[in-house]
Every structure is written in C-alpha cells, then in structure tokens.
Amino acid sequence: QVQLVESGGGSVQAGGSLRLSCLVSGITASRACMGWFRQAPGKEREWVASFDARSVTSYANSVKGRFTVSTDSAKNTLYLQMNSLKPEDTAMYYCAALLSTVCYTLRPSSYNYWGQGTQVTVSS
Q1: Cα dihedral 101/76/21/116 (nearest 10)
Q2: How far is the C-alpha of 57 from the C-alpha of 70, rounded, in Å?
Q3: Helix (H/G/I), strand (E/B), else coil: 65
Q4: Beta strand 46-51 with 57-59: parallel, antiparallel or unpaired?
Q5: Which of 120, 107, 11 is nearest to 67 (CA)?
Q6: What is the pLDDT of residue 97?
Q7: Which residues is 79 bridged to in the sheet?
Q8: How many angstroms separate the CA atoms of 6 and 82, rounded?
Q9: pLDDT for position 103
Q10: Do the beta carbons of residue 91 and residue 44 sit within 8 Å?
C-alpha cells in the first residue's frame, strides 16, 4: 500500500520560510518521479517542482530561485524548502508520485499517488 504523508505547512509572513516534508511508504521515492503541486481556492492544481530518479530537479517559473526540492533516501522522504514566501504562494500543497524514473509530465492527472495535502498561508 502506497502512502504519502505531507507535513510542515503553516502560517508565515511574507519573506518567511517553511520546509514541507512528504514521508513516502510503499514505493522508493528515489526511484520514482516525485512532485510537489499546489492548489489555491478557486484555482486549478498546479505543478510546483519535481525530483526524478536521476536527481534532476525542475521548478515552475513562479518559484524558481526561491524553492528547493530534495530527497532523503534513508528516510524515503521528499522535501520542499520554501524561502522568500509571497502571499501568492498561499495554497494547499500536495506531494505526488509518478511511477516513472523520469518526470515526463506535469499534468496532475497523470500522477499515480497523492498525499492529503498541507496548508501554507502567507500573509502580507
């Protein structure tokens, strides 16, 4: 049984930082495409960042230079370090797993497994 459990969300002021964690069980995160997505109220879920089995990272333009995605193989955990947070980063953040060694798609509907989400709220 595959499970993804996010944690680390919270409320911060603009310019602050948060680190999200996604504890993975049932699959080996370092052998899959792991992604972070977010969804703000009234908006579609959007891709934020990904980390594939080759350790290749990719970022949405809106977060490039501010967010860093990483994994800890020993803990089978995916992280998203978020710095210089902006009010527009406010959303529910989800981690997801695509059963592929390469992140060949950014479409949420293509990902096989999802966590329950963790809320990030950034105030101005």
Answers
A1: 70
A2: 8
A3: coil
A4: antiparallel
A5: 120
A6: 98
A7: 21, 70
A8: 14
A9: 96
A10: no
DSSP 124: -
Residues of the chain with pLDDT under 70: none
| 36 touches 69 (CB < 8 A) | yes
Place of tokens 């919270």: 10
Q: In the numeric block, which tokens belong to residue 82?
A: 């978020």
CB atoms within 10 A of CB 101: 13
Tokens 């109220």 locate to: 41
What are the beta bridge partners of residue 59?
A: 49
**Rounded to whole angstroms, how far apart are CA atoms 94 and 35?**
8
Q: Extract the tokens encoding 8.
A: 């680390």
Residues 120/61, Cβ–Cβ less than 8 Å = no
Neighbours of 96 (CB within 10 A): 23
d(CA 9, CA 27): 23
